[in-house]
């Protein structure tokens, strides 16, 4: 039983290490600012999720089991899209990406609309 | 009468339950003291924040919400492997990243928030902006042959389910 | 064939190396930029990798005392990312 849990911990650690590395590697490798957003916000989040899973299994193995780590996991999964959205808005605002197409229904994207009202 | 008192005491019943649960997990205990203090927090915090979130979402189908969450978790796992493969092996010049314009059928803010979060967490796409009246979502795709296919996939796979849950 | 304990120990070492290397890669992106958005993203990634390192240290020492540190690190990282992005968007954080 202990051996099985150890194997689970090891596998979670390896998966987490792999995805964390892929996230940061993508951050360095990709060539356009909007493309770079894809690496860390997702692969990184899943990687940390797997590392926390390993820590959680280890806490049950060592006797005083706790599922506190789920809180960090949930927090990261809720906040990662918000961080990504804000950084994407910064890219659109500063113009460091391709110009997005016009929205099909309303007049303008929210980020640009704010700039327009500030300028006029 | 009793109903309106209850509504004033607990403006967000689901938020109250979540706060009690989070407090219990944070203390990693289920003793009476923990639950009582969690309930005090769970009553005070929604009352303090109700001014910023006045329109309580009603009529959420929780059974479908659970199955939707499981679907999204599965998609995150599968699609993360695909994106990791793309990032590690595909040269930069061969990636066709495009903007995708997704017109929205859902209207409630909670549903749009969940859709945007889902799009960002399922790899290959990041939700980047909302149009000024909230009828369109701007999505960036990392490696997509066809922008229309990405849009149809998002609309069928996630938006239709969210519309069933929230509206 | 190695025993499960030895496998978990090796996996812990590999994870330490991988997360540390990721932290260095993110730091390179922080230095070379080129834009402010890239730097915010690099900082956000470094915070996430830092949480990973804290969790790994907790695993290595076999204690739970680092849990609060990781949780507070996650919260502060998120708030600082949003504050920095908002500052660039509006030139003002609290309106």
TrEMBL record, chain A:
Organism field: Thalassococcus halodurans
Bias (Polar residues) ranges: 97-110
Segments for region (Disordered): 97-120
A UniProt-annotated Pfam family: PhaG_MnhG_YufB
InterPro entries registered for this protein in UniProt: PhaG_MnhG_YufB (IPR005133)
Name the record gives this protein: Multisubunit potassium/proton antiporter, PhaG subunit (TC 2.A.63.1.1)
PANTHER family: ANTIPORTER SUBUNIT MNHG2-RELATED
Transmembrane segments: 6-28, 67-88
Single GO MF descriptor: sodium:proton antiporter activity
Keywords (A to Z) from UniProt: Membrane, Transmembrane, Transmembrane helix
Lineage: Bacteria, Pseudomonadati, Pseudomonadota, Alphaproteobacteria, Rhodobacterales
Automatic annotation (TrEMBL), chain B:
Segments crossing the lipid bilayer: 9-26, 65-88
Keyword Glycoprotein: no
GO terms of molecular function: monoatomic cation transmembrane transporter activity
Membrane topology, record value: Multi-pass membrane protein
Assigned keywords, A-Z: Cell membrane, Membrane, Transmembrane, Transmembrane helix
Pfam families recorded: MNHE (PF01899)
Superkingdom of origin organism: Bacteria
Cell location: Cell membrane
GO terms under cellular component: plasma membrane
Major site of localization recorded for this protein: membrane
Family in the record: Belongs to the CPA3 antiporters (TC 2.A.63) subunit E family.
PANTHER family the record matches: NA(+)/H(+) ANTIPORTER SUBUNIT E1, NA(+)_H(+) ANTIPORTER SUBUNIT E1
Identification of the protein by name: Multisubunit potassium/proton antiporter, PhaE subunit (TC 2.A.63.1.1)
Lineage: Bacteria, Pseudomonadati, Pseudomonadota, Alphaproteobacteria, Rhodobacterales
Automatic annotation (TrEMBL), chain C:
GO molecular function, one term: sodium:proton antiporter activity
Coiled coil spans: none
UniProt key word Transmembrane: yes
Keyword Cell membrane: yes
Subcellular location: Cell membrane
Predominant location category: membrane
Entry membrane topology: Multi-pass membrane protein
Superkingdom of origin organism: Bacteria
A single Gene Ontology CC term: plasma membrane
Pfam families with a match to the protein in the record: MrpF_PhaF
Annotated TM spans: 6-28, 40-60, 66-89
InterPro entries in the cross-refs: MrpF/PhaF-like
Keywords annotated in UniProt: Antiport, Cell membrane, Ion transport, Membrane, Transmembrane, Transmembrane helix, Transport
Entry similarity comment: Belongs to the CPA3 antiporters (TC 2.A.63) subunit F family.
Record's protein name: Multisubunit potassium/proton antiporter, PhaF subunit (TC 2.A.63.1.1)
Protein's organism: Thalassococcus halodurans
């Amino acid at each position: 039983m202990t051996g099985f849990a150890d194997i689970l911990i090891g596998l979670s650690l390896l998966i987490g290490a792999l995805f964390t590395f892929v996230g940061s590697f993508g951050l360095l490798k990709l060539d356009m600012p909007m493309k770079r957003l894809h690496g860390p916000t997702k692969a990184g989040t899943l990687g940390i999720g797997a590392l926390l899973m390993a820590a959680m299994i280890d806490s049950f193995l060592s006797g005083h089991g706790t599922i506190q780590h789920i809180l960090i996991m949930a927090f990261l999964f809720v906040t990662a899209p918000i961080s990504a959205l804000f950084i994407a808005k910064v890219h659109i605002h500063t113009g460091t990406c391709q110009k997005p197409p016009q929205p099909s229904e309303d007049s303008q994207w929210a980020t640009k609309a704010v700039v327009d009202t500030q300028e006029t | 009468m009793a109903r309106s008192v209850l509504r004033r005491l607990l403006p967000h019943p689901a938020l109250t339950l979540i706060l009690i649960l989070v407090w219990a997990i944070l203390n990693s205990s289920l003793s009476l003291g923990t639950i009582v203090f969690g309930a005090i927090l769970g009553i005070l915090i929604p009352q303090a924040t109700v001014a910023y979130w006045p329109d309580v979402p009603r009529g959420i189908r929780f059974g479908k919400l659970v199955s939707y969450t499981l679907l999204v978790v599965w998609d995150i796992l599968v699609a993360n492997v695909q994106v990791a493969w793309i990032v590690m092996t595909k040269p930069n010049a061969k990636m066709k990243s495009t903007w995708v314009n997704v017109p929205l059928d859902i209207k409630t803010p909670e549903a749009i928030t969940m859709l945007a979060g889902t799009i960002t967490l399922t790899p290959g796409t990041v939700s980047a902006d909302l149009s000024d009246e909230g009828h369109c979502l701007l999505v960036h795709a990392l490696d997509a042959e066809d922008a229309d296919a990405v849009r149809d996939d998002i609309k069928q796979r996630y938006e239709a389910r969210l519309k069933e849950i929230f509206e | 064939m190695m025993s499960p304990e030895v496998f978990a120990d090796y996996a812990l070492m590999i994870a330490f190396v991988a997360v540390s290397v990721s932290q260095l890669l993110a730091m390179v992106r922080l230095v070379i930029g080129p834009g402010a958005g890239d730097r915010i993203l690099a900082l956000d990634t470094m915070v996430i990798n830092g949480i990973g390192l804290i969790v790994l240290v907790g695993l290595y020492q076999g204690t739970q005392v680092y849990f609060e540190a990781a949780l507070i690190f996650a919260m502060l990282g998120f708030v600082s990312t949003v504050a920095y992005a908002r500052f660039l968007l509006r030139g003002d954080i609290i309106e």
